[in-house]
Specification:
15 helices, 3 domains, GMP Synthetase, Chain A, domain 3, Rossmann fold, globular, six-stranded parallel beta sheet, about 525 residues, alpha/beta
């Protein structure tokens, strides 16, 4: 059975906030907002937070997240009772507000006034959290996502703000420093939501904001050394930002105890393998095994169209290849490599794990966390597991990585396999690579690469009729995707000018044989995901 090695707990010297997760898909955004203000925090599933563990963690404050269930359901999730007895400030968000109200003696009603998306609250009173952010009498934009709402308050609470569908949209017990909001301050559509959260952590909880990426860098190096000891580590290197930062971080921590394995799956972008080998083997002098496995991966994926099955197959094959490579490493070292390092991030985890409600609430699995077999021979070390993508880039600069690598757009672990909906073939992969090169070339020429969070092409499982040179064609449709985001948890499509899209479409159709139609995806996240599969 695999053992998940956690290497990101804060030192006792850092102030920290505890976030109890009730299953919301945006819980990690709460953590992201707190990190932005220099406050370390951890997210624990509500049902993994026993009394002794919470006491030992000694948080300066506790945040109760939103969630998909109703507090009126049988066996509805509840916050551990000790949360309300520790004497620390509490901030309940959406479901977190409702369970706090119910547990302290108030009432919640079911689906009387549903609110989803942008909404407005009227500010009725002042509180520590609204200081210098909301004025009494103001009309403020927030983001709602609720059916149930608070109907009566526990003793000691007062109303700070109300909305059309939530008469107690913001409540406060200023004596105990308990606060609750029906809206989501962590979502960007709640204007000034960051400032509200910062007032909770800094003004109410008394945090100074002492957690920085420089501090994380020095502390994680020591923790890696403590965990690994004199054992050997294999790092799965994809060439993306996450795995690259992981590899360089590990190399700094343990030097020649690290061997990186780059698996050329045949699912990579054009020129990717050459760039990875040049950077890590030649520039950083890191031990690197390049394993050519295109035939293996494409053979196993032949005829597979279900995206979850693709991810599971790719995850399994990665481990099989690692095991074979580790046998060679064992022969060289005279002992087995004990650890497998991965660049798993927070968004990978939150989209792969359902806190409550079972499989139906899982959006999709990631090959980093969802495709690993139970009998894997190595333990996992995931030093970036509690970081967001932009934090990884900051860490990359702390490590003095080349800027062109740090600024690279995210690239999924399963590679181009999930950018070809339906069955994968070598022909489709080659068509997609060429289209992607053209698209990114035009984005660079327009000076938009650093403005866009992620941009890529998708080869759709659709053929359409076209006309080229007075002849009929019947070729594939190419989808273009480009989004802006700060953390990958939410995203908006990038509003290209029509002239740009026309130029890209013309070049792709003229230069890439096999495509005769180009479309642009204008779906935001949510409701869509950034990748198509």
């Amino acid at each position: 059975m695999t053992k998940n090695i956690q290497a990101t707990a804060p030192s006792k010297d850092h102030e920290h906030i505890l976030i109890l997760d009730f299953g919301s898909q945006v819980t990690q955004l709460i953590a992201r907002r707190l990190r932005e203000s220099g406050v370390y925090c951890e997210v624990w599933p509500f049902n993994h937070a026993d009394d002794e563990r919470i006491k030992a963690y000694a948080p300066k404050g506790i945040i109760l997240s939103g969630g998909p269930l109703s507090v009126l359901d049988d066996n509805a999730p509840k916050a551990p009772q000790i949360v309300f007895e520790l004497g620390v400030p509490i901030f309940g968000i959406c479901y977190g507000q409702q369970t706090m109200v119910e547990q302290l003696g108030g009432n919640v009603e079911a689906e009387q006034s549903r609110e989803f998306g942008r909404a407005f609250v009227d500010v009725l009173d002042h509180s520590e959290i609204t200081t210098n952010v909301w004025d009494k009498g103001a009309h403020e934009q927030v983001w709602m996502s609720h059916g149930d709402h608070v109907a009566s308050l526990p003793e000691g609470f007062k109303v700070i703000a109300k909305s059309e569908g939530a008469p107690y949209a913001f409540i406060a017990d200023t004596e105990r420093h308990f606060y609750g909001v029906q809206f989501h301050p962590e979502v960007l559509h709640t204007l000034h939501g960051r400032e509200l959260l910062k007032n909770f952590t800094h003004e109410v909880c008394g945090c100074s904001g002492d957690w920085t990426m420089a501090a994380f860098h020095s502390e994680i190096i020591q923790r890696i050394r403590d965990q690994v000891g004199d054992e050997h580590v294999i790092c799965g290197l994809s060439g993306g930002v996450d795995s690259s930062v992981t590899a360089i971080l590990l190399h700094e921590a343990i030097g020649d105890q690290l061997t990186c394995i780059y698996v050329d799956t045949g699912l990579m972008r054009s020129g990717e393998s050459r760039q990875v080998v040049a950077m890590f083997r030649d520039h950083y002098k890191i031990k690197l095994i390049k394993e050519d496995a295109e035939e293996l991966f494409l053979g196993e994926l032949d005829g597979v169209s279900d995206p979850e099955e693709k991810r599971k197959i790719i995850g399994r094959l990665f481990i099989e290849v690692f095991d074979k490579c580790s046998e060679r490493i064992t022969e060289e070292l005279g002992k087995s490599a004990k650890f497998l390092a991965q660049g798993t991030l927070y968004p990978d985890v939150i989209e792969s794990v359902s806190i409550v409600g079972g499989e139906s609430l899982t959006i999709k699995s990631h090959h980093n966390v969802g495709g690993l077999p139970d009998n894997m021979a190595m333990d996992l070390v995931e030093p970036l597991r509690d970081l967001f993508k932009d934090e990884v880039r900051i860490l990359g600069r702390e490590l003095h990585m080349p800027e062109e690598f740090i600024r690279r757009h995210p690239f999924p672990g399963p590679g181009l396999a999930i950018r070809i909906p339906g069955a994968i073939t070598a022909e489709k992969l080659e068509i997609l690579r060429k289209a992607d090169l053209v698209y990114l070339d035009e984005i660079h020429k327009a000076g938009l690469y650093d403005t866009i969070w992620q941009a890529f092409t998708v080869l759709l499982p659709v053929r359409t009729v076209g006309v080229m040179g007075d002849s009929r064609t019947y070729d594939y449709v190419c989808g273009l995707r480009a989004v802006t985001s700060t953390d990958g948890m939410t995203a908006e499509y990038y509003p290209f000018e029509h002239k740009f899209l026309s130029r890209v479409s013309t070049r792709i159709i003229n230069e890439v044989h096999g495509i005769n139609r180009v479309v642009y995806d204008i779906t935001s996240k949510p409701p869509g995901t950034i990748e198509w599969e």
